[in-house]
Amino acid sequence: MRFIHLTDPHLTVPPHGRTLASRSHYGKRYLGYASWANKRRHTLRRVWLDELLQEVNGLAADQLLISGDLTQIGLEEEIVQARQWLEALAPPDRITFVPGNHDNFAGESWDLVRREWSEFLHLESRQQHPVTRHFGDVTVLGLNSAVPTRPLSACGLLGAGQLERLSLALERHRDTFKILLLHHPPLPGMIGFRKRLRDAAALAGVLTEQPVDLVLHGHRHRNLSADTPAAGPRIFCTGPASSKDASFRVFDVAREGAGWRVEATLRQRTADGFQVSEAERWMVSAPD
């Protein structure tokens, strides 16, 4: 099975700042708009995202794993734009998507996300995260770490209920190769206080009791694999899919003997097109 991970495209264009002001969307949303207008619209561009997707389309992925931040400030107009982008990208059964903090940006954002992106979230009407999807003997578990926060905060939170459901799901599917997908870095100390996963220690406790084989996340806007702890799952952060050096990761997972062979490559945009900048291979043993 071939899985491609991409994240943080920030692809939408929010309404003009004057429109926000006319709607009384001050505070965090206005600050978010200013951040987009002054920085992200210059450093994260749709043309670079389109180049990345052209490259991705040539690699015949079985599943696209997208770890959030399609929007800038989670307005209805943006969420509709992002739905149209998802629909053009691939059918829902070829996409596993979890939201980022910019998608669930404010109090009303989540209801809009569930309404517009329901097919890509793979949530039934009253279902809650984690989402569990099966691809042969590979299980993808999608967590929702995106919660509205106060201005100048980009923290995430899973909550006790989601962590309990995750533990149960991992136990049920312990005999499969397990991929965990979320937006925020999963472990304590992987990012600064203002952008951390607030219950990362609790998630680490769950993963100690019910291990996974691969963790994929975004949020840091960097390509990182050195965060992998000495004992535990392989953990990869992928850089933004719409930056000048737009990035994505390819994971080929195949059964081999009593375990799985994993081949991973990081591909980045360069002046000479997309190039492989990292490549590695490892084996994962099946549980006893």
The first-to-last residue Cα distance is 23 Å
How would you sum up the major sheet?
6 strands, mixed
Structural class: alpha/beta
| CATH fold label | Purple Acid Phosphatase, chain A, domain 2
Shape: globular
CATH superfamily, by name, is Metallo-dependent phosphatases
- Highest-level CATH class: Alpha Beta
Q: From the alpha-carbon coordinates, what is the Rg to the nearest angstrom?
A: 18 Å
Mean pLDDT level: 93
Sequence of secondary-structure elements: EHHHEHEHEEHEHEEEEE
How many domains make up the 3D coordinates?
Answer: 1
Low-confidence stretches: none
The number of strands is 11
Share of β-strand residues: 15-25%
The percent of residues in helical segments reads: 25-40%
Number of helices: 7
Describe the strand arrangement of the main beta sheet, using strand numbers.
3-2-1-9-10-11
- The CATH architecture assignment turns out to be 4-Layer Sandwich
Q: What's this, in brief?
A:
By secondary structure, this protein is α/β, with parallel strands linked by helices. It contains 7 helices and 11 strands. The strands form 2 sheets. Strands 3-2-1-9-10-11 form a 6-stranded mixed sheet.
Written account of the structure:
This protein is of the alpha/beta class and 288 residues long. The chain has one domain (2-285): Purple Acid Phosphatase, chain A, domain 2. The protein is 29% helix and 24% strand. The protein is built from 7 helices and 11 strands. It has helices at 17-22, 28-43, 46-57, 76-89, 109-121, 160-172, 200-209, and strands at 2-6, 63-66, 95-97, 131-135, 138-142, 177-181, 214-217, 234-237, 247-256, 259-270, 273-285. The chain has a 6-stranded mixed β-sheet. A 5-stranded mixed β-sheet has the order 4-5-6-7-8, with helices on one face. Helix 4 runs parallel beside helix 5 (109-121) and helix 6 (160-172) packs parallel to helix 7 (200-209). The protein is globular. The model has no long low-confidence stretch (mean pLDDT 93).
